[in-house]
Amino acid sequence: MATRKRPGENGRRDGTPSKHKPPRADGPGHVAALILARGGSKGIPLKNIKMLAGVPLLGWVLRAAVDSKKFSSVWVSTDHDEIEKVARACGAQVHRRSPEVSKDSSSSLDTIQEFCRLNPEVDFVCHIQATSPCLHPFHLTEALEMITEQGYDSVFAVVRRHHFRWQEVNKACELPSPAATVHAHVWAAGSTGETLNVPRCLPPLAGELTRPLNLDPLNRPRRQDWDGELCENGSFYFSTRHCIMNEGLLQGGKVAYYEMKAEYSVDIDVDIDWPVAEQRVLRYGYFGEANPEVVRLMFCNVSGCLTEGRIYLSKSGEQMVSVNTRDTAGIRMLQRENTEVVLLTSALDSVGRSLADRVAEVTGCQVVEVGAEPLKELKPMVEAKKLGWKDVAFMGCDMPDVGCLNLAGLSAVPHDAPSVAINAAKYICRSGGGAGAVREFAEHILLQKEKAKARRRSTDSV
């Protein structure tokens, strides 16, 4: 991806140059990724582990950090037990922050400095914000290269905005009415003497009119004629230990920015941001190292995924299961896109052979019986089809499925699956087993395929 990288210069708070020389003789030294995830979010309670597009919010940036393979260690700093559990399940180490840096008034810098004091081996810190779920590994890789190869001391993420900004004025205004207006001249710069009707403010102080901060109203530029402005998007901040501990800065020494595209610049502060962020993440988020474009095979458990896991018995003793038509429609969607769907039953559950045959007839899928360790039996099937596990999607619902959930390129569980399966899956459905979860995962697979195709078209056109 083409990004714009432009250096800037910064120094100490008193304006004197930084004397920091980072330890780069044999590489950058110990580079730690650090995500701050306090439990006391005021805007959205426990925001950092709230589910976003099937994944805890914290999980999106942790996945990007871990898969970048550029960090000596990946950490979550928290004061909350549930956040710690999610962090460890996502492969992170945990820094249990002290009460002194867990207050509403505590700054990010306070917490990062405490982390550095407790981890003296760390030379560089990449502070990644959990509220930026569209972060990808290549963003972190390219930004770190600016430190390791170009010699910068700190690098932070920005996005280009085309917003016209105006000076804020006194808000103590009466509601406008025909009698509550006064005549005011347009500001002096370029004024034509034209008068405007404006609401009367209390008190009507001189100089209370707004003014433009970054444009000339007489020469408003078109978007294509204006480069816009660079704004921090909060995704990440790389900084040296020296800048953090000795200068009290996250942006100090020799500073540069890393520009991210607008589609990846998502920030979540309040509830109203959530549904918009979810749609952005589904289209632009990072779902793992697999290439979804080549997914050719999907394994799906019958009990707990395609059905709700219950067996109905008639008076005569006949077994019955309920299959949701939304789920069968989702299977057909995958089949039309040349993705083979294989349904799995287990010798450990009560779905009998005759019942499995009936499910196969309804769905048009092959049904395979697996034992207590499905991975052992499915590996030969994948190899026989000359596929890798990156080409496989897997939908499971319990502990025996964990190995397949971890290995598959795309994996999912219904939202009512036990935590051991949820922690292993890359996607957690909003729907339960037998209630549309298979359809939801099918749509997710197809969306990822479209994203991969769009990226390939974009790359080919460059």
Automatic annotation (TrEMBL):
InterPro entries, per the entry: CMP-NeuNAc_synthase, Cytidylyl_trans, HAD-like_sf, HAD_sf, Nucleotide-diphossugar_trans
Catalytically driven reaction(s): an N-acylneuraminate + CTP = a CMP-N-acyl-beta-neuraminate + diphosphate
CDD domains recorded: CMP-NeuAc_Synthase (cd02513)
Protein's GO biological process: N-acetylneuraminate metabolic process
Region Disordered, annotated ranges: 1-29
Basic and acidic residues bias locations: 1-17
GO molecular function per UniProt: N-acylneuraminate cytidylyltransferase activity
Keyword field: Nucleotidyltransferase, Transferase
EC number(s) on file: 2.7.7.43
Pathway this chain belongs to: Amino-sugar metabolism; N-acetylneuraminate metabolism
Keyword Nucleotidyltransferase: yes
Keyword Transit peptide listed: no
Family: Belongs to the CMP-NeuNAc synthase family.
Name by which UniProt lists this protein: N-acylneuraminate cytidylyltransferase
Organism in which the protein naturally occurs: Gasterosteus aculeatus aculeatus (three-spined stickleback)
